[in-house]
Design goal:
Layout lengths: L3 E8 H17 L3 E7 L4 H6 L3 E4 L10 H17 L3 E5 L1 H14 L3 E6 L4 H5 L6 H14 L4 E5 L2 H9 L8 E3 L22 E5 L8 H14 L4 E5 L12 H9 L4 E2 L6 H5 L4 E4 L8 H8 L4 E4 L14 E4 L4 H12 L2 H18 L2 H16 L5
Parallel strand pairs: 1-2, 1-4, 2-3, 4-5, 5-6, 6-7, 8-9, 8-11, 9-10, 11-12, 12-13
Helix pairs in contact: 1-14, 3-4, 4-6, 8-12, 11-13
Length: 379
């Protein structure tokens, strides 16, 4: 009888962009695959692969707390219907809710993927922050049990969780990111863009460094008014640091940035860029930068966990301090003023993607992790 595997992921867009290849391989290995997610798009695509989709309402306008309680009840119903033998919960909210229900249901094997440590770890200024203390307690409850194994994407997040006792004496695995399809994302055969185009591919929220990006654009345009700055993403209304649409309209009116909106064809969208930029405050291992590297783009990003794990400073691009628009502008200017440097760093980025971030390696590592926890080798 096939092992029932349940993915618990915030929304269907993220599942398709970050986890679908892993699920497809699990199907090939004989798993019966289910997905609990907030269905935004792609339901027909996901179900066409043989994956059973269960709507899990993590997004919405209900107040914080009530929304999570309602989602927990829905998730409990999904567990009762599926009776999973293995779960794979991705990101903090899904880890907390999925881990809680899995303990109640005594699910035999549990995989938790920490894809960044989230809002309260970034914003909490003191070690004894109330909300972070509550979050840590719930994470300990979800993760610290003999049926679980936790995947981390960078060493900083692993050490932070160990410091707070989240993963004390429990097995962990390092899988650096969700990988990238090197056949789908590749350098263009020819470049027909006019001038230099800088792009920030991310959700529009403060923690992605969007305001610093706009200010850097202002600085750069004083010397190079012809350079275009694009935002490839939409406003993330479910994030506490989401920007207000009026800010984007103001930047657009000032001709600082061009809001391109949500991109449904990222391979072609990235080919329109000359430089990829992600001035984030903290990440797991940003897939957007992996895709940019595979596209052969030079990268400018920040010296924070996750971002600094994608490139080497001065080789595939530049790493600058977070929350520093001036340093960001200086690094971008170096690339803007030198086509040869852009080509050199872009080629190095593609090579690094080929060596470290191919999707096949990431998929194989996940299936090995499933086998490890299912056979109790992790305990």
């Amino acid at each position: 009888m096939a092992t029932r595997l349940l993915y618990i992921i915030q929304n269907s867009d993220v599942f398709v962009s970050h986890r679908l290849p892993i699920a497809e391989c699990a199907l090939e290995q004989g798993f019966e695959v289910h997905l609990a997610t907030h269905v935004l798009r792609h339901r027909e695509l996901i179900e066409s692969k043989g994956i059973k989709v269960h709507h899990f309402p993590l997004l919405g306008k209900l107040p914080f707390g009530i929304r999570e309680a309602w989602a927990s009840l829905i998730l409990l119903y999904i567990f009762l219907s599926v009776r999973p033998q293995l779960i794979h919960a991705v990101a903090i909210r899904c880890i907390l809710l999925g881990g809680f229900v899995a303990r109640v249901m005594r699910t035999p094997a549990r995989v938790f993927a920490v894809a960044g440590v989230g809002y309260y770890f970034i914003e909490a200024k003191e070690d004894r922050s109330f909300f972070r203390k509550i979050l840590v307690l719930f994470m300990r409850f979800a993760i610290n049990n003999k049926q679980s194994i936790t995947i981390f994407q960078n060493d900083d997040d692993l050490q932070l969780c160990r410091f707070f006792g989240v993963t004390v004496s429990r097995p962990t695995v390092m899988i650096r990111g969700s990988g990238v399809n090197l056949d789908e994302f590749h350098p263009p055969s020819s470049v027909d863009r006019v001038g230099v185009v800088v792009g920030l591919p991310a959700r529009i929220q403060a923690h992605k460094g969007v305001r610093e990006y706009a200010e850097a654009a202002r600085i750069v345009k004083e010397r190079h008014p012809e350079v275009r700055f694009a935002l490839l993403g939409k406003i993330d209304n479910d994030n506490p640091t989401a920007l207000h649409p009026s800010e984007l309209k103001s930047w657009e009116s000032d001709k600082l940035v061009e809001p391109w909106g949500l991109q449904t064809d990222m391979p072609n969208a990235l080919k329109k860029l000359s430089i990829a930029c992600l001035p984030s405050y903290r990440e797991g291992l940003p897939k957007a930068l992996l895709e940019a590297a595979a596209t052969g783009l030079p990268i400018v990003t920040t010296d924070v966990p996750g971002c600094r794990d994608v490139i080497n400073d001065g080789t595939e691009g530049f790493i600058v301090p977070a929350k520093d628009p001036k340093a960001l502008a200086e690094a971008l200017t170096k690339l803007i003023e030198s086509q040869s440097l852009r080509e050199k760093m872009g080629s190095a980025a593609r090579k690094r993607a080929e060596e470290h971030f191919g999707i096949e390696k990431v998929v194989a590592a996940h299936l090995k992790t499933y086998d490890q926890i299912m056979t109790k080798e992790a305990v």
